[in-house]
């Protein structure tokens, strides 16, 4: 895997525990825990991304004197793909608490033959010109919706850098994103090898949106 991909569960940390919980079909019955674990993964990803961003020195007046401190130079824009991305988004926002926020609806429009195309039909974003943009989506499966979203953000908004945060990615999805959008950096909670014909990651965890918010019906 290239240096543009970070697998956050390569090290033995609490994050691996949360990944095992979101995968576990027994623990998944507790929707609040599922959402909170995704949020915690977003928090860890935010902390790791912050290590790559520019900081400025600043003096802070304490009650006892002056402290030399460091502060994030510019606030990022956190953008998520509705609806499944919301808990990860909240986790990123818990840490980047002064960030601006964008929301995009990208969904799989299924055809009768089982194939699908990505439909992008709602976008609400702040100014992106020259800014660091972080896009979150819990499952990087085929990569089709992420690539469509990133292309839109890049062409319409011209961000300076794009980070992608996912809870679980599969190898083919990562390769597709990096082939289509070689400048972006992908932060993954875990990486799986298999993808079903219907675009589900194996072993993965199932449908992240349904697990977080309840089963949907196809309209
Ligand atoms: N979206 C999901 O929710 N799960 C997958 O396995 C793939 C895409």
From TrEMBL:
Question: Entry's InterPro entries?
Answer: PRTase-like (IPR029057), PRTase_dom (IPR000836), PyrR_bifunctional (IPR050137)
Q: Which cofactors go with this protein? A: Mg(2+)
- Pfam families (UniProt xref): UPRTase (PF14681)
The chemistry this enzyme catalyses reads: UMP + diphosphate = 5-phospho-alpha-D-ribose 1-diphosphate + uracil
Q: Which pathway is recorded for this entry?
A: Pyrimidine metabolism; UMP biosynthesis via salvage pathway; UMP from uracil: step 1/1
Swiss-Prot/TrEMBL keywords: Allosteric enzyme, Glycosyltransferase, GTP-binding, Nucleotide-binding, Transferase
Q: What is its EC number?
A: 2.4.2.9
Q: Where is the Phosphoribosyltransferase domain?
A: 13-214
A molecular function annotated in GO for this UniProt entry is: uracil phosphoribosyltransferase activity
Q: What does this protein do?
A: Catalyzes the conversion of uracil and 5-phospho-alpha-D-ribose 1-diphosphate (PRPP) to UMP and diphosphate.
Task: Give the similarity note.
Answer: Belongs to the UPRTase family.
- Name the record gives this protein: Uracil phosphoribosyltransferase
């Amino acid at each position: 895997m290239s240096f543009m991909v970070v697998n956050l569960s390569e090290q033995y940390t609490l994050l691996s525990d949360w990944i095992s919980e979101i995968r576990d079909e027994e623990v998944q019955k507790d929707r609040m825990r599922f959402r909170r674990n995704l949020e915690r993964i977003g928090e860890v990803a935010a902390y790791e991304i912050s290590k790559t961003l520019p900081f400025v020195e600043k003096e802070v007046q304490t009650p006892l004197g002056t402290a030399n401190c460091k502060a994030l130079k510019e606030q990022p824009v956190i953008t998520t793909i509705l609806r499944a991305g919301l808990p990860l988004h909240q986790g990123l926002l818990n840490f980047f608490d002064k960030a601006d926020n964008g929301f995009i609806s990208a969904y799989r429009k299924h055809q009768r033959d089982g194939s699908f195309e990505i439909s992008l039909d709602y976008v609400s974003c702040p100014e992106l010109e020259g800014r660091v943009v972080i896009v979150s989506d819990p499952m990087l499966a085929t990569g089709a919706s992420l690539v469509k979203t990133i292309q839109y953000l890049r062409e319409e908004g011209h961000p300076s850098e794009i980070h992608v945060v996912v809870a679980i990615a599969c190898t083919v999805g990562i390769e597709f994103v990096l082939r289509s959008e070689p400048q972006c950096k992908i932060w993954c909670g875990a990486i799986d090898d298999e993808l079903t014909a219907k675009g589900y990651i194996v072993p993965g965890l199932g449908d992240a949106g349904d697990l977080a918010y309840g089963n949907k019906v196809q309209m």
